[in-house]
Amino acid sequence: MRLKEYFRKMRGTTRGSPPRVSTSEVIWSWLGGFLGILAVAWVNHLWFEGSDLTLLIGSFGASAVLVYGAVRSPLAQPRNLVGGHVVSAITGVLAWKLFHADPWLASAFAVATAIALMHLTRTLHPPGGATALIAVIGSDQIHAAGFTYVLVPATVGPVIMLMVALVINNLAPTRRYPEIWW
Protein backbone atom coordinates (compact mmCIF):
# COMPACT_ATOMS: atom_id res chain seq x y z
CA MET A 1 0.00 0.00 0.00
CA ARG A 2 1.32 3.40 -0.88
CA LEU A 3 1.72 6.03 1.81
CA LYS A 4 -0.78 8.35 0.12
CA GLU A 5 -3.45 5.60 0.10
CA TYR A 6 -2.71 4.83 3.73
CA PHE A 7 -3.38 8.41 4.84
CA ARG A 8 -6.41 8.73 2.52
CA LYS A 9 -8.09 5.95 4.52
CA MET A 10 -8.06 8.22 7.58
CA ARG A 11 -10.42 10.75 5.96
CA GLY A 12 -13.47 8.58 6.52
CA THR A 13 -16.10 7.61 4.00
CA THR A 14 -19.12 9.76 4.78
CA ARG A 15 -19.84 13.41 5.34
CA GLY A 16 -21.77 15.09 8.08
CA SER A 17 -22.74 14.23 11.60
CA PRO A 18 -24.43 11.05 12.76
CA PRO A 19 -28.20 11.14 12.28
CA ARG A 20 -30.35 12.65 15.00
CA VAL A 21 -32.58 10.39 17.07
CA SER A 22 -36.12 11.25 18.11
CA THR A 23 -36.94 12.81 21.44
CA SER A 24 -38.77 9.60 22.33
CA GLU A 25 -35.59 7.59 21.68
CA VAL A 26 -33.59 9.96 23.89
CA ILE A 27 -36.14 9.59 26.71
CA TRP A 28 -36.22 5.77 26.48
CA SER A 29 -32.41 5.65 26.42
CA TRP A 30 -32.22 7.95 29.45
CA LEU A 31 -34.83 5.93 31.35
CA GLY A 32 -33.11 2.63 30.57
CA GLY A 33 -29.69 3.97 31.53
CA PHE A 34 -31.03 5.45 34.74
CA LEU A 35 -32.97 2.36 35.82
CA GLY A 36 -30.25 -0.09 34.72
CA ILE A 37 -27.49 1.60 36.69
CA LEU A 38 -29.91 2.32 39.56
CA ALA A 39 -30.75 -1.39 39.83
CA VAL A 40 -27.09 -2.43 39.91
CA ALA A 41 -26.22 0.34 42.41
CA TRP A 42 -29.21 -0.53 44.61
CA VAL A 43 -28.30 -4.23 44.75
CA ASN A 44 -24.72 -3.17 45.49
CA HIS A 45 -25.99 -0.97 48.34
CA LEU A 46 -28.17 -3.73 49.80
CA TRP A 47 -25.78 -6.68 49.55
CA PHE A 48 -22.23 -5.51 49.09
CA GLU A 49 -21.79 -2.16 50.78
CA GLY A 50 -19.26 -2.45 53.57
CA SER A 51 -17.75 -5.60 52.12
CA ASP A 52 -14.68 -6.03 49.96
CA LEU A 53 -16.89 -6.84 46.97
CA THR A 54 -18.46 -4.28 44.67
CA LEU A 55 -21.17 -4.81 42.12
CA LEU A 56 -20.72 -1.49 40.34
CA ILE A 57 -17.73 -0.91 38.06
CA GLY A 58 -17.07 1.80 35.50
CA SER A 59 -17.41 -0.42 32.45
CA PHE A 60 -21.11 -0.83 33.23
CA GLY A 61 -21.62 2.82 32.29
CA ALA A 62 -20.43 2.02 28.78
CA SER A 63 -22.61 -1.11 28.72
CA ALA A 64 -25.60 1.07 29.59
CA VAL A 65 -24.91 3.25 26.55
CA LEU A 66 -25.04 0.19 24.30
CA VAL A 67 -27.87 -1.74 25.95
CA TYR A 68 -30.21 1.24 26.41
CA GLY A 69 -28.96 3.65 23.75
CA ALA A 70 -28.04 1.35 20.85
CA VAL A 71 -30.45 -1.54 21.41
CA ARG A 72 -30.18 -2.94 17.89
CA SER A 73 -26.39 -3.05 17.86
CA PRO A 74 -24.90 -6.55 17.75
CA LEU A 75 -22.59 -5.36 20.55
CA ALA A 76 -25.61 -4.73 22.82
CA GLN A 77 -27.22 -8.16 22.58
CA PRO A 78 -27.49 -10.43 25.66
CA ARG A 79 -24.76 -12.85 24.55
CA ASN A 80 -22.38 -9.93 24.09
CA LEU A 81 -23.42 -8.04 27.22
CA VAL A 82 -23.03 -10.94 29.64
CA GLY A 83 -20.49 -13.03 27.75
CA GLY A 84 -18.24 -10.09 26.96
CA HIS A 85 -17.96 -9.09 30.60
CA VAL A 86 -17.43 -12.68 31.79
CA VAL A 87 -14.76 -13.52 29.20
CA SER A 88 -13.02 -10.22 29.90
CA ALA A 89 -13.14 -10.60 33.67
CA ILE A 90 -11.58 -14.06 33.48
CA THR A 91 -8.91 -12.68 31.16
CA GLY A 92 -8.22 -9.70 33.43
CA VAL A 93 -7.89 -11.82 36.57
CA LEU A 94 -5.54 -14.24 34.78
CA ALA A 95 -3.47 -11.32 33.45
CA TRP A 96 -3.12 -9.91 36.98
CA LYS A 97 -2.15 -13.28 38.40
CA LEU A 98 0.43 -13.88 35.66
CA PHE A 99 1.94 -10.41 35.32
CA HIS A 100 1.14 -8.47 38.53
CA ALA A 101 4.84 -7.63 38.97
CA ASP A 102 4.58 -5.60 35.74
CA PRO A 103 1.15 -3.87 35.76
CA TRP A 104 1.91 -2.14 32.46
CA LEU A 105 2.33 -5.53 30.79
CA ALA A 106 -0.67 -7.02 32.62
CA SER A 107 -2.85 -4.11 31.45
CA ALA A 108 -1.92 -4.48 27.79
CA PHE A 109 -2.16 -8.27 27.90
CA ALA A 110 -5.57 -8.19 29.61
CA VAL A 111 -7.21 -5.82 27.14
CA ALA A 112 -5.67 -7.28 23.98
CA THR A 113 -6.40 -10.86 25.02
CA ALA A 114 -9.96 -9.95 26.06
CA ILE A 115 -10.55 -8.47 22.60
CA ALA A 116 -9.22 -11.60 20.91
CA LEU A 117 -11.22 -13.96 23.13
CA MET A 118 -14.43 -11.95 22.74
CA HIS A 119 -13.97 -12.17 18.96
CA LEU A 120 -13.35 -15.93 19.15
CA THR A 121 -16.39 -16.51 21.39
CA ARG A 122 -18.62 -14.10 19.42
CA THR A 123 -19.18 -12.02 22.55
CA LEU A 124 -17.55 -8.74 21.48
CA HIS A 125 -18.73 -6.02 23.88
CA PRO A 126 -16.42 -2.98 24.00
CA PRO A 127 -16.97 -2.32 27.73
CA GLY A 128 -15.47 -5.77 28.29
CA GLY A 129 -12.07 -4.26 27.58
CA ALA A 130 -12.58 -1.98 30.58
CA THR A 131 -13.72 -4.92 32.70
CA ALA A 132 -10.45 -6.71 31.90
CA LEU A 133 -8.46 -3.57 32.63
CA ILE A 134 -10.23 -2.97 35.95
CA ALA A 135 -9.18 -6.47 37.07
CA VAL A 136 -5.58 -5.33 36.60
CA ILE A 137 -5.60 -1.68 37.69
CA GLY A 138 -8.36 -1.99 40.28
CA SER A 139 -8.03 -1.66 44.02
CA ASP A 140 -6.46 -4.15 46.39
CA GLN A 141 -10.00 -5.41 47.07
CA ILE A 142 -10.49 -6.18 43.37
CA HIS A 143 -7.17 -8.05 43.30
CA ALA A 144 -8.01 -9.91 46.51
CA ALA A 145 -11.35 -11.02 45.04
CA GLY A 146 -9.50 -13.02 42.40
CA PHE A 147 -11.89 -15.11 40.35
CA THR A 148 -14.82 -13.97 42.51
CA TYR A 149 -14.54 -10.79 40.39
CA VAL A 150 -15.86 -12.88 37.49
CA LEU A 151 -19.08 -13.57 39.39
CA VAL A 152 -19.36 -10.28 41.32
CA PRO A 153 -19.48 -7.89 39.53
CA ALA A 154 -18.79 -9.20 36.01
CA THR A 155 -21.69 -11.66 35.78
CA VAL A 156 -24.27 -10.42 38.28
CA GLY A 157 -24.09 -6.77 37.16
CA PRO A 158 -24.71 -7.42 33.45
CA VAL A 159 -27.50 -9.90 34.27
CA ILE A 160 -29.27 -7.19 36.30
CA MET A 161 -28.80 -4.72 33.45
CA LEU A 162 -30.14 -7.32 31.01
CA MET A 163 -33.30 -7.80 33.09
CA VAL A 164 -33.91 -4.04 33.09
CA ALA A 165 -33.20 -3.88 29.34
CA LEU A 166 -35.76 -6.60 28.62
CA VAL A 167 -38.45 -4.63 30.45
CA ILE A 168 -37.64 -1.05 29.44
CA ASN A 169 -36.59 -1.61 25.83
CA ASN A 170 -39.75 -3.57 25.07
CA LEU A 171 -42.09 -1.00 26.62
CA ALA A 172 -41.20 1.45 23.86
CA PRO A 173 -43.35 0.85 20.77
CA THR A 174 -40.40 1.56 18.45
CA ARG A 175 -37.97 -0.83 20.15
CA ARG A 176 -37.49 -4.57 20.29
CA TYR A 177 -34.86 -6.17 22.50
CA PRO A 178 -33.07 -8.41 22.01
CA GLU A 179 -32.52 -8.76 18.29
CA ILE A 180 -30.80 -12.09 18.96
CA TRP A 181 -30.25 -14.06 22.18
CA TRP A 182 -27.32 -16.36 21.45
Task: Give an overview of the whole structure.
With 182 residues, the protein is an all-alpha fold. It has one domain (23-171). 66% of the residues lie in helices and 0% in strands. It has nine helices and no strands. It has helices spanning 3-8, 23-48, 59-69, 78-99, 103-120, 127-137, 140-145, 148-151, 156-171. Helix 3 (59-69) packs parallel to helix 9, helix 4 (78-99) packs parallel to helix 6 (127-137) and helix 5 (103-120) packs antiparallel against helix 6. It starts with a helix and ends in an 11-residue tail after the last helix.
Question: Helices, strands, pairings?
Answer:
Layout: H1 3-8, H2 23-48, H3 59-69, H4 78-99, H5 103-120, H6 127-137, H7 140-145, H8 148-151, H9 156-171
Helix pairs in contact: 2-3, 2-9, 3-6, 3-9, 4-5, 4-6, 5-6
